[in-house]
Specification:
Strand 3 and strand 4 form a beta hairpin. The N and C termini lie far apart (about 40 Å). The strands form three sheets. This protein has a three-stranded antiparallel sheet. Helix content is about 20%, strand content about 15%. By secondary structure, the chain is α+β, with helices and mostly antiparallel strands.
Length: about 180
């Protein structure tokens, strides 16, 4: 697959104030121009750190792969989620017939799918497995904690999801704690 500048691209989704959470990362997008928080400023992005073939193409891409990119930045193609709408541009892979993300119903003059650029900021101090987040989610559903409505568990199959500031802060706080 070729990216916007002819570079090889794979499905990616890693990013920002970054944290590997199982095969996920956290990203904080900039605040709004008036200094307040922009809508959807916090994101959890799942990645493919293990090799997996889709239509004969390995879509593996981990946070380490992002870190190794020039300027530690790359496009994140193949996102099939309408939640990302700001700072996005058409995903070129939807038009490539041999691409795992090809969509015959999408037209170049009216694309259905967008992609964003993500940039590595840092690794978390420790790996936080999905099972640990799930345990906190279950406990918070009963106690009313910050992960009680986390989309990662309420809307399965999302590759990217908005986080509230409370969810984002809680997940980042886990890096300082012993695994549960």
């Amino acid at each position: 697959m070729k990216g916007p500048e002819g570079k090889r691209s794979k499905t990616k989704n890693l990013g920002g104030a970054s944290a590997q959470v199982e095969s996920s990362s956290l990203q904080r997008t900039p605040a709004s121009e008036d200094g307040g928080e922009a809508l959807g400023s916090y994101w959890l992005m799942k990645s493919e750190p293990e090799s997996r073939l889709e239509k004969g193409v390995d879509v593996k891409f981990s946070i380490e792969d992002l870190q190794a990119q020039p300027r530690q930045t790359t496009c994140w193609d193949g996102v099939r989620n309408y939640q990302i709408v700001k700072e996005a541009y058409p995903d070129h892979t939807q038009f490539e017939k041999n691409n795992p993300h090809y969509d015959s119903s999408s037209k170049e003059d009216n694309p259905k799918w967008s992609m964003v650029d993500v940039q590595f900021v840092r690794m978390m101090k420790r790996f936080i497995p999905l099972a640990e987040l799930r345990a906190h989610h279950q406990a918070h559903k009963a106690s009313g904690g910050p992960l009680k409505n986390m989309a990662l568990f309420t809307h399965q199959r999302l590759s990217v999801q908005r986080l509230t500031r409370e969810e984002f802060d809680f997940i980042l706080s886990l890096e300082e704690k012993e695994p549960s």
